């Protein structure tokens, strides 16, 4: 009897893991397709509000969408908070940890002077990592738009969900792309 209970529990856990794996693969595939649509000048890409974030040192190349009211689209995307103008402060949120949608899982591997590229419309903004620090999930001061030309990448600390990892990048230049 006990063996059967353990088998059933094992099968249920395995089914959940497989479901998460399949969902993760589908979400990653959809994101990659959307990134390709930007790079290929596809008219299906929402050039007015979507961005593409590329960080070569952690092999990240994803679409960033505007956060909806309750941030529920954060489960399937990187999202930016309120503004997406290069000369303002841009804040991008993403999940880390296990499971699907953990696009910022390697964010803690970034080092000072690493580069990040943010694409919007026909422009490429080049940012450089200047600082990395942790804040409490209750600290909202990072949302203030007082630092022009700053990009903040924010995610949960992997082993402590009460803390947020913040990677601060400074705008170095903006280039117009000729596609």
TrEMBL record:
Active-site residues, Swiss-Prot/TrEMBL: 95, 156
UniProt xrefs under Gene3D superfamilies: Sortase
Pfam families the record matches: Sortase
GO MF annotation terms: hydrolase activity
Spans traversing the lipid bilayer: 6-29
Keyword check for Aminoacyl-tRNA synthetase: no
Keywords noted in UniProt: Hydrolase, Membrane, Transmembrane, Transmembrane helix
InterPro entries in UniProt: Sortase, Sortase_dom-sf
Record's protein name: Sortase
Organism: Candidatus Aphodocola excrementigallinarum
């Amino acid at each position: 009897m006990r063996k059967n209970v353990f088998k059933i529990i094992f099968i249920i856990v395995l089914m959940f893991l497989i479901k998460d794996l399949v969902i993760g693969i589908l979400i990653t595939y959809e994101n990659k397709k959307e990134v390709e649509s930007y790079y290929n000048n596809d008219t299906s890409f929402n050039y007015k509000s979507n961005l593409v974030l590329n960080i070569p040192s952690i092999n990240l190349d994803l679409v960033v969408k505007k956060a909806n009211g309750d941030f529920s689209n954060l489960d399937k995307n990187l999202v930016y908070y309120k503004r997406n103008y290069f000369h303002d402060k841009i804040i991008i949120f993403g999940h880390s940890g296990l499971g699907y949608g953990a696009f910022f899982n390697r964010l803690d591997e970034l080092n000072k002077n690493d580069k990040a590229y943010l694409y919007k419309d026909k422009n490429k903004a080049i940012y450089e990592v200047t600082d990395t620090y942790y804040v409490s999930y209750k600290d909202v001061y990072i949302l203030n738009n007082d630092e022009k030309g700053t990009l903040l990448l924010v995610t949960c600390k992997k082993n402590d969900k009460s803390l947020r990892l913040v990677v601060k990048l400074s705008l170095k230049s903006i280039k117009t792309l000729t596609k």
